[in-house]
Design goal:
Largest sheet: none
Helix content: 55-70%
Strand content: under 5%
Distance between the termini: 65 Å
Oligomer: single chain
Low-confidence stretches: 14-36, 38-47, 95-119, 121-125
Order of helices and strands: HHHHHHHHHHHHHH
Structural class: mainly alpha
Shape: globular
């Protein structure tokens, strides 16, 4: 008895699938009748086995090349070498000589001919892309929406909501004391330290919650009902707040070490909280965002008639202009307005998610 026959017999007794796929390298067309007899012999033991006709068709399709193939890495953009990418960029630059935007968002300069334009594109391919070009979908606020943000509060309902509110108020009070925010004048340094530190914390819940739900979806092999993308968008949006603030100040080594310590503790705590009660976590974030709206509203007040009036005339960082699609002459005040609008949006989203059951559909589409 051949080894291929023994293999097929042993597989047929244990396999509970509906088809048997036979490689042309192991089996030629002349062996199909033997396989058909084998299938008939084990048919009482295994249900829904393939028929002799289907075996012939599978072998024929394989010989004709009718099967899925692995893509050639050479045709994938991220597998191309640098010289190939330069050639592609040059071709694209040549096709868009007259006024179209070139690679990486660089515009053609009037009066420059096609050859110089292509050379500029080739040189630009090696430069680092601007921050924020890989951003996920997120809301772009109108002027009315930016100025229509109000400080609101959702009254707690039940013990879980009350615990979430008490936790947020306690953490805020402790942070105000230790950071010295409520004592003395609120200077540039105090505001920037507060914003940077809070954004390193605010970007944690969305990422942790998305990870927990992602792993649960994989573990239980079921859909997530659309929550993951909203949580990831929130996490990145908070991270972009941090990237913007870092354009104004670079923290000290001690500050960075404290962020590492707090992040380690908070990530672990929030992971456990979300595994136990997603409702508590989303309500916690909702109340946390209420405090964030208060903070940025106070910042805007200090910019109008406080200790940081000069912020109104400071130009907006380029990353903020690109991310929120602000005018080229936007000021730092416009950036704070956009950040406050983001926090107000997160406030509504998390209070909504907290009021939903964990298996209900997420009402927010990507970027909303």
């Amino acid at each position: 008895m051949s080894s291929s026959t023994i293999f097929l017999r042993s597989s047929a007794r244990t396999l509970c699938a509906s088809r048997i796929v036979i490689s042309a390298a192991e089996l030629n067309l002349s062996s199909a009748p033997a396989v058909g007899r084998l299938v008939c012999a084990v048919a009482p033991q295994v249900r829904h086995l393939t028929t002799q006709r289907e075996i012939r068709e599978n072998i024929k399709d394989y010989r004709e090349g009718k099967f899925d193939k692995i893509p050639d890495p050479g045709h994938l953009e991220h597998f191309r070498n640098k010289s190939e990418r330069k050639v592609k960029v040059a071709e694209e630059g040549e096709r868009s000589q007259q006024g179209a935007q070139q690679v990486q968002g660089v515009q053609n300069v009037p009066g420059v001919d096609g050859e110089q334009s292509v050379q500029g594109a080739q040189g630009h391919i090696n430069e680092e892309p601007p921050m924020g070009v890989y951003a996920m979908p997120h809301p772009i606020w109108t002027e009315d929406q930016l100025h229509d943000v109000k400080v609101t509060h959702k009254p707690p309902e039940g013990i879980v909501d009350r615990l979430a509110l008490i936790t947020v108020k306690t953490l805020r009070g402790c942070f105000d004391v230790f950071s010295g925010f409520k004592t003395g004048q609120r200077t540039d340094a105090k505001w920037l330290n507060r914003i940077i530190f809070l954004e390193t914390v605010a970007a944690v819940p969305g990422m942790v919650a998305a990870m927990v739900r992602h792993m649960k979806s994989l573990r239980w092999m079921q859909r997530d009902h659309g929550w993951i993308h909203t949580l990831l968008e929130e996490a990145e949006n908070e991270r972009m707040h941090l990237m913007t603030a870092l354009q104004l100040k670079q923290p000290s080594t001690l500050f960075r070490m404290s962020v590492i310590g707090v992040q380690g503790v908070f990530v672990t705590m929030f992971f456990v909280w979300y595994a136990v009660s997603p409702r508590f976590c989303h309500r916690f974030v909702g109340y946390l965002e209420e405090e964030a709206v208060k903070t940025y509203s106070k910042c805007l007040e200090d910019m109008e008639h406080g200790s940081i009036i000069h912020w109104k005339t400071l130009p907006a960082p380029p990353v903020a202009i690109n991310y929120w699609r602000l005018p080229e002459n936007a000021k730092l005040r416009d950036v704070i307005l956009a950040i406050r609008a983001d926090e107000a949006h997160h406030r509504v989203v998390n209070h909504t998610l907290a009021s939903l059951k964990k298996d209900e559909f997420n009402p927010y589409k990507p970027g909303h």
